[in-house]
Design goal:
Layout lengths: L2 H28 L4 H17 L5 H11 L9 H10 L6 H33 L1
Amino acid sequence: MNPSLVADSLVLLHAFFIAFVAFGGFLTLRWPAVAYLHLPCLLWGILIVLGGFICPLTPLEIQWRLAAGEGGYSGGFIDHYIMPLIYPPGLTRGTQILLGLALMIGNGLLYGCLWHKRGRRSSRRL
């Protein structure tokens, strides 16, 4: 097995997971059953962001990079890959907390719409 390919695959998996955490609530508006997968992922993402933790995929990717003879990196996945792309330079802990709160509020609104939509459907059946 090619360690570099495994590390790159972990990066893709990580990126898709982050996108699902951030935008998966929109999928629940069309397919409500997605909520059973999205809610635990969303809670995990919020915990990671607000707690300032490093996702377990990051050290795993670094381990595979080192096994491939490539250099590892310090920090987390977001620090290494995402921040240079979308976060402003000098991101503070306060800004990170605001991003986590935005994640909670945005998805709270989406799930509120879903809950309201389901409630209207069930009241029509009566």
